Amino acid sequence: MEEPIASLIEIGYSALEISGRFKTMPPPGLVSLSSNDYLGLSRNPLVIDASLRATRNFGTGATGSRYLSGNHPLNRELSDATSQFKTGGKGAALVFTSGYHANLATVSLISELSPLIFSDSENHASLIDGMRNAKGRKVVYPHNESEFIREYLKKNPQQKPVIVTESLFSMKGDLAPLSALFEIVEEYDGMLVIDEAHATGTTGISGRGALEALGLPYVPERMILTGTYSKALGSLGGFVILHEKAAKILESTARTLIYTTALPPGVLAASLEAIHVLAENTEIVRSLQRESRIWNAYIQDDTESSSPIIPVMGDAPTLQSVSDNFRTQGYYLPVITYPTVPRGEDLLRLSVNIGWDKNVRKTLETFLPPRKGVQK
Ligand SMILES: Cc1ncc(COP(=O)(O)O)c(C=O)c1O
């Protein structure tokens, strides 16, 4: 006889409990030290005013999908501004309700089109989920090892491979070897999908992202950029920047664009203003990079990196006790565990914020010993 559904829930519950994979949300009121609001733009007065004005003028909700009643003109303004900011207008941008939706749609489409897709082993869940329905072969390559892809293609020659990677990795804050990956897609007539979720606003001299940092041009025929307004831009929503015709295909087929309600005007206006603030004031990016350099040197003994994402490595119990120490002082710095990071690579994900005051700095120095992580 088949199990009744209530027993299946019991079994699922127990399995999760035994594997220690229950997730707990933090209580409200703690100050997060893992926030993605690197530039503090979610509290920027210009961004807040723009959002309030749009809400007063146009209402709180989008009222429908962009294909029904939700296609507010701010969508167009935002995609144009995004394309301009990220690629000097070279690519066509599409706005989605979240970065997750944007990645899911982009990687699903490209996976359907390509016979072979490579994905970095530390890619974000939204990129992984996009590959689930891939028709061709899927190869997960060791983190940042472009040579692995080269060797694979030498042994299994295949034109039109797609390589999917984050640019600034969300958990370890390291950069993908984009120049080497780009060379591969040039050589094999492939396509490089770059998730700029964390690089936008933080990376490159003016925060335009990893291409700017590495001095690489945006090439619409070979690159698709994805990203989000929810991190350094302090708002909500995702974007994809790609070749104009590919954008038309995505716009006509992406289920996460067609079958969901569009972003509300207040959110679109906030994202748009955040881009303006950033475009007009590169000093805030530099200030973030200065602060990040200090903490990379302090925590990792890395005097080169200006990444605002700094992993604090260590064994799980020690990390937990450091995390608990922060909590006693009102700060939240959780231990990130599998499957968000690979097994055995638990870490505290410290993200630098330009709004940090001397209390935060002092607490960090108290609980994070310099240079060596938190090994016992
Ligand atoms: C690398 C990466 N890509 C995509 C996303 C999804 O972005 P959003 O939060 O806008 O859905 C995230 C956020 O968690 C991320 O870290």
TrEMBL record:
It comes from the Bacteria. Keywords: Pyridoxal phosphate, Transferase. Its cofactor is pyridoxal 5'-phosphate. InterPro entries: Aminotrans_II_pyridoxalP_BS, Aminotransferase_I/II_large, AON_synthase_class-II, PyrdxlP-dep_Trfase, PyrdxlP-dep_Trfase_major, PyrdxlP-dep_Trfase_small. The keyword Transferase applies. Residues 30-362 form the Aminotransferase class I/classII large domain. Pfam families: Aminotran_1_2 (PF00155). GO terms for molecular function: pyridoxal phosphate binding; transferase activity. Gene3D superfamilies: Aspartate Aminotransferase, domain 1, Type I PLP-dependent aspartate aminotransferase-like (Major domain). Belongs to the class-II pyridoxal-phosphate-dependent aminotransferase family. PANTHER family: CLASS II AMINOTRANSFERASE/8-AMINO-7-OXONONANOATE SYNTHASE. This is 8-amino-7-oxononanoate synthase.
